[in-house]
Write a structure and sequence with these properties.
The chain is mostly beta strands. The chain is built from no helices and 16 strands.
Amino acid sequence: MKNKPIISQVNLNQVSVNTIDTSSGIFIGTNFAHNWSSHRKNNYGFGTASNSIVSQNSSYVVDNDFVDTPIDNCPEIIIERVNDNHGNEINVTEININVLDSGAAVSVGENDLNGWSAHSKRNAGQGRFAGAIQNTQNSSVILDNDIIDTPINEHG
């Protein structure tokens, strides 16, 4: 597959983002992203909080499995790209990002982003916190007695 040249003009003064999650991103310009893959299991006792006060909570996560979160990923990466200048004009003054998660990207310009894979299992008694958090007098218990935990088969 051949991609036609793209001519673009991007003028940004400021981009502000709190969190870019797994296999996500900010893409400015000409970006070719093929076969991105993300598999994830999350167990959060509390959840997600941003710019908050979290106080006097108890979290209890029980995730006992025989086989937990098996992942079989087979990306097919086929790209035929013309390597000529696309004539892009990109002016970005400022990009502010508080949290970049696994496999997250900030791409400015002309980029080939092929076959990205991000696979995981997360257990968190308190969850995910971002920004200004006041976290006091909390307790967490996590029981995750798996026989086989997150087998990942990555081939392609």
